[in-house]
């Protein structure tokens, strides 16, 4: 196969709403409002998941996306295999896709790092130093010396 068929994927997610499909490596990403809600690899759909939605995937006996690189197995816990029955049930797929979009939205809200808070405190205490003006370097012209 030359990759996932974007029209078929959009049709599969039609009950959820409009999605765009972008080729990625050997598969594709499914996006809704700029958020990646699904990953397609080897004709298998993996939905975006987080700590709130992973239990539903586990209850179905499903696994996160995994791949081999340089002989080492790698797992990405933010995308989980979609239940097989959803390929034939657009209404239930729409429900799972909404949850995947919610997980993508939650993932987009990053907590500030602890160091960032410390840096912000220090910056608030110290007055900002004015920046020094950079000296302009004059262009040098080389002239041949006469003997």
Task: Characterize the structure shown.
This protein has a domain at about 5-105: 2-Layer Sandwich (Yope Regulator, Chain: A), CATH 3.30.1460. By secondary structure, it is of the alpha+beta class. The longest helix has 19 residues, at about 90-110. Strand 2 and strand 3 form a beta hairpin. The chain has a 6-stranded antiparallel beta sheet. About 30% of the residues lie in helices and about 25% in strands. It is globular and about 60 Å long. The chain has helices at about 5-10, 55-60, 90-110, 115-125; strands spanning about 20-25, 25-30, 35-40, 45-50, 65-70, 70-80. The N and C termini lie far apart (about 75 Å).
- The CA-CA distance between the termini, in Å, is 76 Å
Instruction: Evaluate the radius of gyration.
Output: 26 Å
The CATH superfamily of the domain at 6-106 is: YgaC/TfoX-N like chaperone
| Strand segment tally | 6
| CATH fold description of the domain at 6-106 | Yope Regulator, Chain: A
- Spans with pLDDT under 50 lasting ≥5 residues? none
Q: Treating each run of at least 4 consecutive H or I residues as one helix, how many helices? A: 4
Largest sheet: 6 strands, antiparallel
Mean pLDDT: 83
Order of strands side by side in the largest beta sheet? 1-2-3-4-6-5
Q: Which geometry do the CA atoms define?
A: globular
Determine and state the CATH class of the domain at 6-106: Alpha Beta
């Amino acid at each position: 196969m030359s990759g996932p068929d974007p029209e078929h994927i959009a049709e599969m997610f039609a009950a959820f709403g409009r999605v765009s499909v972008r080729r990625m490596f050997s598969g594709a990403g499914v996006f809704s409002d700029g958020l990646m809600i699904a990953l397609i690899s080897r004709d298998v759909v993996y939905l975006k998941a987080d700590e709130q939605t992973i239990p539903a995937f586990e209850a179905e006996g499903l696994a996160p996306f995994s791949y081999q690189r340089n002989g080492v197995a790698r797992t990405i816990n933010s995308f989980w295999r979609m239940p097989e029955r959803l390929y034939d049930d657009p209404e239930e797929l729409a429900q799972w896709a909404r949850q995947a979009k919610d997980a993508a939205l939650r993932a987009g809200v990053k907590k500030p790092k602890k160091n960032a808070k410390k840096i912000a405190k220090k910056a608030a205490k110290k007055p900002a130093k004015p920046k020094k003006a950079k000296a302009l370097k004059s262009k040098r012209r080389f002239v041949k010396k006469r003997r």
